[in-house]
Amino acid sequence: MKYTRTLLLAALLVSLAACTQPKPSTVGSDAGIEKRIEQLLSKMTLSEKIGQMNQVSVGGEVSNYAEAMRNGQIGSILNEVDPVKINEFQRICVEESRLGIPLLVGRDVIHGFHTVFPIPLGLAATFDPALVEQGARIAAVEATGQGVRWTFSPMLDIARDPRWGRMAEGSGEDVWLDARMAEAMVRGYQGTDPDGSSMAACIKHFVGYGAAEGGRDYNSTFLTERQLRNVYLPPFEAAVKAGAMTLMTSFNDNDGVPSTGNTFILKDILRDEWGFDGLVVTDWNSMGEMISHGFGVDRKDVACKAVNAGVDMDMMTFGFISHLEEMVASGCVKESVIDNAVRNILRIKMLLGLFENPYVDVAAGQAVQYAENHLDAARRSAEESVILLKNDGILPLDAAHVGSILVTGPMADAPHDQLGTWAFDGEKSHTVTPLMALRERFPGKVNYVPYGYSRERRTRFDDIVSAARRADVVLVFLGEEAILSGEAHCLADLNLIGTQSELLVALKAAGKPVVATVMAGRPLTIERDLPNCRAMLYAFHPGTMGGPALVNLLFGDVNPSGKTPVTFLRTVGQVPMYYSHTMTGRPYKGETLLNDIALEAGQTSLGNTSYYLDYGARPLFPFGYGLSYTTFDYSDIALDKTVYPADGMITVSFKLANTGAFDGTEVAQIYVRDLVGSVTRPVKELKHFERVALKAGEQRTVQVQIPVSELAFCGLDGAWKVEPGDFQLWVSGDSDSGQPVSFKVQ
Ligand code: GLC
Q: Going from the N-terminus, what domains does the chain have, and what CATH number goes with each?
């Protein structure tokens, strides 16, 4: 008896110790930093603590903010990128304020700083996390070279509605791809060992923002907790596990609660479940917008709701700096809540080494901008981001024997628009457009006839068409201006704007080979354009080096390898349409469509499944789709077992052969389906992808290990677990091809 009692006591002590053990820091803090935080916090007045929670977008003269900084009323600034001014801001805070706490300097470095990479949707199309990480590292080197130490990136919003302009800024529709891209960008921005080039990442917009009703930005979302846990939260959890230092709350209200005042997501999930000990910042005035939402009566009310829900820093509402002190006095907010917010802020500043070195070396920082290796990485990222949607064999063009080239279209020479949305610090003077790259490579062979979006007059076509008749090949660059995607830039019509489609028809009628390239911030509905070109490349705004990248692809120096990170619709009326949908009780079986049959009197039925009479229920191009100049063949797909334990490991092997005449890289994708669950499950979910480079004629056996735990989901009982039962697994080059192999989880 006594022995049992001792054992029980020991077990109790062990479990008590575990409870008191601090959770491991997700941002990489340690006991030394935590001790420094407590020492500094103990010296701070309430006013100075609240000052750290105040972020201000600055502009103009430094002197306008000097007094507030001397009084410790500003903890962070955004939108200053002049290193001399940033150093002056820091000097005032460090040398003229009472406690010398340095500023955290933020900026939207979304897909590159000066050297602009493809927009994030294009980066996702590379399915190349290593390359994306390299690009983020380069962005950090350039941005920190000018004093920026915090970027409001990566954006993790799963987006399944291309009407929403911010689809451009994220990694598309898929959970697995989004999570891998998020991890890559966090690692790239922050670096492995925070040093002078380490830039704090900010995972945003937490959470569910991409599900805005109607695809209209800032609109309400109505996601269940299960949808949040199975689709919208996993990329954020992956980014937190990757060490993301900060997080931004989203504008939307979900199920009636604005994220900036949502205790469930900001405390229960983010802090308690995930143990996140980084900094939570609001989106721009998203605290103040809770008044407009009807979630608070005034700025005092919403400030109270935000800080008590778990917000640490206020971007541009001035709610904390204006009201927190009186709210502590009134008891609405406990000072301990403020202490925790300030701890999170000081932790990031200390991790970045800002106390040791708050200043930027201006000369050294200038030297790294647009470095050759940066431009090279931007070009390679653009090359890998481009998707070959159609090719009747006209591509690749023969550079050695090409004759005269007609170049036209609104994106042929659009140095600003080619950079895409959220390219604040990209300088169009550094953009290399397709026209510039073609002229450099084929001097004397390029005839350029400009065509702008606004030219509605048919007469403009006459000179372009006559030029086409004189050319050997027509390269037309179409798409949408950068301003048509990004924040608040949503579209209800996804066709090529203006008379671009008509231009394509006219060019085809000229009788010469027409190759179209589309540059856009979203998947446009280009079905009607495909018949009017012999080949089509699709580039999500490819950035500074988009021109050379596209020329290398058009002439075969590089073989396209991009894959669609979002579903391409046949018409906007199909939205939302994405590959990982549920089966429904009446799945579409490919029934005949309205326009395929005569409408005879007395028709009794046109089908009774989930589809559109006029457009069916299949997209134009599925997720994960992209052609190559060569062909790939998958065979011998096998699993090492047929039955796995819930904690087991699935070993998948398959042969991949390059069966064509060009060397190329295939993005091999592995999808899994859980056939029966306690809740209905998607027909497919991506669980692995990898780029496999193969020479013409080469074949390789590839082996992949997938933990069974990756099949877990939030089921009917709300628990996150793998449910036993039957599964199917596909290995293929897109989400809509291949034959499944079956296995069980017991
Ligand atoms: C904007 C965006 C957010 C951005 C912030 C700062 O409104 O929603 O993504 O980081 O303000 O510019």
A: 376-554 (3.40.50.1700), 632-745 (2.60.40.10)
- The H or E element spanning position 280 is strand 279-281
Pick the catalytic residue: 128, 217, 277, 283?
283
* pLDDT tens for each residue of 330-381: 999 999 999 999 999 999 999 999 999 999 999 999 999 999 999 999 999 9
CA dist 58 and 336 (Å) reads 30
For residues 492-501, one letter each, b for 16 or more C-beta atoms within 10 angstroms of the residue's C-beta and e for the rest, the string is eebbbbbbbb
CA-nearest residue for atom 3, ligand 1, is 283
Instruction: Tell me phi and psi for residue 537, to 5 degrees.
Output: -105, 140
Q: Which residues line ligand 1 (CB under 6 A)?
A: 108, 152, 204, 283-284, 487
On whether the CB atoms of residues 442 and 548 are closer than 8 A, the answer is no
If you measure from the C-alpha of residue 283 to the centroid of ligand 1, how many angstroms do you get, rounded to a whole number?
6
Residue by residue, what is the 3-state secondary structure of 109-173? CCCECCCECCCHHHHHHCCCHHHHHHHHHHHHHHHHCCCCCEECCCECCCCCCCCCHHHHHCCCC
283 is catalytic: yes
Closest atom of ligand 1 to CA, residue 251: 8
Residue with tokens 């990485």: 377
Q: Whose CA is nearest to atom 7 of ligand 1?
A: 284
Residue 110 CA to ligand 1 center (angstroms) comes to 10
Instruction: Tell the burial category of 605 from Cβ atoms under 10 Å away from its Cβ (0-12, 13-18, 19+).
Output: exposed
Please give the distance, rounded to the nearest whole angstrom, from the Cα atom of residue 36 to the centre of ligand 1. Answer: 31
Concatenate the DSSP letters of all residues of 33-75 into one string.
HHHHHHHHHHH--HHHHHHHTEEEE--S-THHHHHHHHTT--S
pLDDT tens-digit series, residues 523-562? 999 999 999 999 999 999 999 999 999 999 999 999 999 9
Cα–ligand 1 centroid distance for 59 (angstroms): 16
CA atoms in the 13 A half-sphere facing the CB of 536 = 19
Lowest pLDDT segment from 30-44, 113-127, 509-523, 608-622: 608-622
* E-only strand ranges, 577-709: 632-639, 643-644, 649-658, 664-674, 685-694, 699-707
Instruction: Kindly calculate the radius of gyration of the chain based on its CA atoms and give it in whole angstroms.
Output: 27
| Cα 622 to Cα 186: distance, rounded to the nearest angstrom | 28
